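Chapter summary example: a protein plus adenosine-5'-diphosphate.
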Amino acid sequence: MHFKDLGLDPRLLKKLTHLGFDRATEIQRTAVPVAIMGKDVLASSKTGSGKTLAFLLPAMQRMYRSKPFTRRDPRVLILTPTRELAKQVFAQLRTLNAGTPYDGALIVGGENFNDQVKEFRKDPMFVVATPGRLADHLEHRSTHLDGLEMLILDEADRMLDLGFEAQLRRIHEAANHRRRQTLMFSATLDHEEVIDISSDMLDTPKRISIGYSNEEHTDITQRFVLCDHLDHKQALLDKVLETEDYKQVIIFTATRADTDRLTKELNERKLKAVALSGNLNQSQRNSIMSQFERVCHKILVTTDIASRGLDLDNVSHVINFDMPKHAEEYVHRIGRTGRAGNKGDAISFVGPKDWKSFKSVEAYLQQEITFSTIEGLEGKFKGLKPAPKKKFVKKKATDKKPSAPKKASASSAKKKTDKRFYENVAVGDNVFMPKKKRNVDVNSGD
Ligand code: ADP
Ligand code: MG
């Protein structure tokens, strides 16, 4: 379907033609007409299917077609879980709003707060932000959201995983009026937490899902390789990098420390690799991403900080050096390749330490996975047997002690306090943690 059949303003159509986009992707042709009618939308479609334009086009349409509620407040706010993704969305917005009076500001952690206050004074109509920093600005009263017309949450589930629920609710409260439209997008929106928050933030939304989040991505060839130990993984990685014909590759590790160690090893072997992790300062992060985008390096080693949203044309391969802890991150990690109809390759190493994560990925994908081998590097590890189920021994009624009250949702409580979880994935923006521990995450300064 051509964009012109979606009811878009001719000025937008002209821009799309100029950008070389003619046919709308499935998510675009489904979501755009609903969103330009003003309805709330909860939309999911696979990675690389064009969700960004699916929300930017209705936002731009609103600029062209309706009057602002106030002159001062931002009209559209787009939130993303990472600074890198915010920058990318902002760049895509700039291709659409260039030459119009509908200017925008990028408001992310790690950048100078006062410069951002000045940006707000220019009354931008679009704000693309990470939730932590935006909530700080609301606190500081650098901006107000009473006049906000559209709130867009990209990768909403990830913002919740990272502990930004409080900030999202704060932002929602600041813009909580009847005429606000809210759109949520992700490749994985089936979390319980997403359903909870969306029922509070969205008003009778239209649910759009193009395929299922666990459906096989036909443009990505997925392979899983069993490994015995770290040295074995390293040898496999060397072999893969030697034999695969890759343009650029992203290697995901479990922790920042693993990212640094692996990058060092690759560089010692003269394989030019760069590391992107949350403990770098923002200008280092910016320069690494821009170098990788310009293909100055062929290998990027990172953590789940880069699993979401990033759209890099030349990434032909994704390697999971370690399996992700959260099954849906697997879908997002491999989705850094095979985008916009291109083909990609994903290779995952599964050692004893990865077994539990692997099983949850397998369960999430609802597929029985067969393992591949790499010639000359076959290992001994064949997977772990499930732990035998504990036998339930019925106690005599007389033994029964009054039982302690059950703790509510132990697993979710654990998730919030698991420090490693934050250390591995921290994105540098006010990751929500109990006050005392907040300084543990030293990468941001905001
Ligand atoms: P998603 O958010 O679904 O992962 P993106 O919005 O990042 O996907 O888009 C993935 C790639 O597809 C981008 O490079 C984008 O420019 C391109 N793209 C988006 N819409 C179209 C379209 N209608 N035709 C061709 N390419 C498109
Ligand atoms: Mg996206």
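Key point: Residues 51-65 form the longest helix (15 residues).
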